[in-house]
Amino acid sequence: MTSMEVRIRNLKEDMPLAAAMLARFGAHHHLAAPILHDMNVVLDDALNNIIAYGYDPGDKSDITIRLEHRPGEVVLLIEDRARPFDLTQAPAPELETSLQSREVGGLGIHFIRSLMDGIDYSSAGGINRLRMTKKLST
């Protein structure tokens, strides 16, 4: 098994299904704990933002999460029909200012950019695709 996929509803209560798939995938491929940790943080943040900000209240849609094990890396792909949002083009958060004076938002994008080794985003035909890669230590 080099890939695994789960489809969830755009509801926060379905997010644990994606985390459970990541745990099974990690166990099957003997992924190191730090890699699984980073991928869990990224998966949780990406799904939370898609669900919280990508849909209007009451919109019903599915989100597909796919994991692929490739030589030297793991690929995490999230596909959704939410409003397009290209996090690769979003400005970096201001990390030098105090928490009290900092604008809300942006830290999740910072975590994704910091924890993953590659990020690609595309939107076509009403489908957003966020592809993130994590290198495996050799």
Structure description:
With 138 residues, this protein is an alpha+beta fold. It has a single domain, classed as Histidine kinase-like ATPase, C-terminal domain (Heat Shock Protein 90, 2-Layer Sandwich), CATH 3.30.565. It has 3 helices and 5 strands, in the order βααββαββ. It has helices at residues 15-28, 33-53, 107-115; strands at 3-9, 62-70, 73-80, 118-124, 127-135. Strands 1-2-3-5-4 form a 5-stranded antiparallel beta sheet, with helices on one face. α1 runs antiparallel to α2 and α2 (33-53) runs antiparallel to α3. The radius of gyration is 15 Å and the shape is globular. The mean pLDDT is 90.
Structure in a nutshell:
The protein has a five-stranded antiparallel beta sheet, covered by helices on one side. About 20% of the residues are buried.
Taken in chain order, the helices and strands follow as EHHEEHEE
CATH superfamily: Histidine kinase-like ATPase, C-terminal domain
Runs in which pLDDT lies below 50 for 5 or more consecutive residues are none
- How would you write the strand order of the largest sheet? 1-2-3-5-4
Number of strands: 5
Helicity, as a percent range = 25-40%
Largest sheet: 5 strands, antiparallel
Please tell me the total number of domains.
1
Terminal CA distance: 20 Å
What is the CATH-assigned architecture? 2-Layer Sandwich
Task: Tally the helices.
Answer: 3
Give the DSSP E fraction (strand runs of 2 or more residues): 25-35%
* CATH class call: Alpha Beta
Rg: 15 Å
Mean pLDDT: 90
CATH topology: Heat Shock Protein 90
Shape: globular
